[in-house]
Write a structure and sequence with these properties.
The protein is an alpha/beta fold. The protein contains eight helices and nine strands. The chain is 45% helix and 17% strand. Helix 1 links the parallel strand 1 and strand 2. 39% of the residues are buried.
Length: 254
């Protein structure tokens, strides 16, 4: 991948001591030339200490310790800042719990040859989820449909958290201004990529429900996403409407 050789995989963690060693090993096995940055939010279960030991044993691993639990969005913003400052060409988002299979990472990276954002998608042909209840699948599909209709995004899985950005993409979309802290951060950045007119490729992945540890998803995260999508959607449709009205006025004046 000419110009895309330096890859940083950002893995935010909070109480992932049962998973972090395994997910880092799988990531480096899948892409041996990649580097991994663990962004730990002062996990009380010792995740940060485990990550420090892994970093001491392998110079492809680094750890950023934060003072407390500040949310997924803030963790990725910190990782992006680190990666851009260090000169990485590609920055990858990946969960620590094994739900994102590192073995799919080479296909995401390959997709960047013709894209500015390669998005691991559960809801395109070839994508699937494992060990999800029907109700959870309906919630995820419904959230993505809502985002697609409200914002007019040609993306089927904008909530997906397994993705690879070109550094030039992050430099163009002002990711620092994103205020979303939960999983809405993924929709926020996808929406910024769409509005910037950049190329998105959805790569089918298999999403596997975590086997160890506790999910961080809760109702407040879903509420944040619903409120923000509604706000963005109203603003987007209002801009479209006012644009149409201005064209009508111009035509009527000629």
């Amino acid at each position: 991948m000419t110009g895309l050789e330096r890859v940083l995989v950002a893995i935010p963690t909070y109480n992932e001591s049962q998973n972090i060693e395994r997910i880092i090993a799988r990531t480096l096995a899948a892409v041996p030339t990649a580097n991994v940055l663990v962004v730990d939010d002062a996990s009380p279960d010792g995740t940060g200490d485990i990550a420090d030991a892994l970093a001491a044993a392998d110079d492809r691993v680094a750890v950023a310790h934060r003072a407390g639990k500040a949310g997924l969005g803030a963790a990725y913003q910190a990782a992006f800042e680190h990666g851009l400052a260090a000169g990485y060409n590609v920055l990858v988002e990946m969960d620590a719990d094994g739900s994102h299979r590192p073995e799919d990472l080479p296909r995401l990276l390959a997709a960047l040859q013709s894209a500015d954002l390669a998005l691991g998608s559960r809801w395109v042909r070839g994508g699937r989820v494992v060990d999800w209840s029907r109700s959870r699948e309906l919630i995820s599909r419904g959230a993505n449909l809502f985002a697609r209709l409200a914002l007019g995004m040609p993306v089927r899985d904008s909530t997906g958290g397994f993705r690879a950005y070109r550094r030039t993409t992050l430099e163009k979309i002002d990711f620092r201004a994103a205020q979303s802290r939960g999983y809405c951060f993924q929709i926020d950045l996808t929406w910024r990529v769409v509005r910037a007119g950049l190329r998105i490729r959805e790569v089918p992945i298999t999403f596997v429900e975590r086997q160890r540890g506790q999910s961080k998803m809760d109702s407040s995260i879903m509420i944040e996403a619903a409120l923000r999508i509604t706000q963005w959607g109203i603003a987007h449709r209002w801009r479209q409407l006012t644009g149409v009205l201005r064209r009508i006025v111009r035509l009527s004046a000629t």
